[in-house]
Amino acid sequence: MADLAVFASGNGSNFEAVSEHLAQSPHRVTCLVCDRTGAGALRRAARLSIASHVISYAGRPREDAEQEILGILRDAMVDVIALAGFMRLLSASFIETFGGPILNVHPSLLPRYPGIGAIETSFHSKDNELGITIHEVDHGLDSGPIVLQKSFRRTGRESLAEIEQRIHELEHRWFPDVIRRFLDDAPSRQHWRM
Predict the structure, then answer these.
(1) Domain with 87 in it: what CATH number?
(2) Which sequence positions are flagged as catalytic?
(3) CA dihedral in degrees (144, 152, 120, 62; nearest 10)?
(4) Three-state secondary structure along the chain?
(5) pLDDT digits (tens, 9 = 90+) for 132-148
(6) Is the pLDDT of residue 68 over 80?
(7) Does a structural domain hold residue 90?
(8) Burial zone of 149 (CB within 10 Å; 0-12 exposed, 13-18 middle, 19+ buried)
(9) CA dist., res. 72 & res. 184, Å (int)
(10) Contact 69/33 with Cβ under 8 angstroms?
């Protein structure tokens, strides 16, 4: 069994999809880390009986917030982190200190449209194919090694809301599968236990 922490800033639909998927596995979502009070992800965590932690970045250096998060992860012996709409860049120091896999789901076919607003940018592009990228997090912005990409062809008649729905369907379908694969491999890592 391996333990996952999910980081989210918003509604939390990916967090819920991951949690429900892992409920049918030997692994578990140990906690939710959220940087925004009142985020929908926190309500989902309460409903799913998953511990949640609100870590404010306001008025303090990023390093202080990250040290607080690392303390939570260490106490929970987290093996893998999944970023599910977490709107913060993690520092190189955080990534190195954690030492385990950190996965992100991004709503575009990277390297196209990194950063925020990717769905809208994709929608307004002339691209015929849109989709998602699941990648490992490195020190850059949506620049880590790609684990999986899934896409669909659009007709050009879809609304932004329809494109957004299709993107989320891909995220909810594929992100939990990739996370589970990494959790299956995690017991050999056990970076906190050293």
Answers:
(1) 3.40.50.170
(2) 106
(3) -20
(4) CCEEEEEECCCCHHHHHHHHHHCCCCCEEEEEEECCCCCHHHHHHHHCCCEEEECCCCCCCHHHHHHHHHHHHHHHCCCEEEECCCCCCCCHHHHHHHCCCEEEEECCCCCCCCCCCHHHHHHHCCCCEEEEEEEECCCCCCCCCEEEEEEEECCCCCCHHHHHHHHHHHHHHHHHHHHHHHHHHHHHCCHHHC
(5) 999 999 999 999 999 99
(6) yes
(7) yes
(8) middle
(9) 22
(10) yes
Q: Look up tokens 């390093």; give the residue.
A: 63
Average pLDDT of every residue of the chain: 94
Residue 53 has pLDDT above 50, yes or no: yes
Q: Is residue 38 part of a domain?
A: yes
In a domain, 161, yes or no: no
Amino acid at 43: R
Q: Checking DSSP bridges between strand 51-54 and strand 28-34, what pairing results, if any?
A: parallel
d(Cα 99, Cα 48) in Å, to the nearest integer? Answer: 28
* Full domain range(s) for residue 37: 3-109+134-150+170-193
Whether 159 maps to a domain, the answer reads no
Is pTM beyond 0.90? Reply is yes
Structural domain tally of the chain? 1
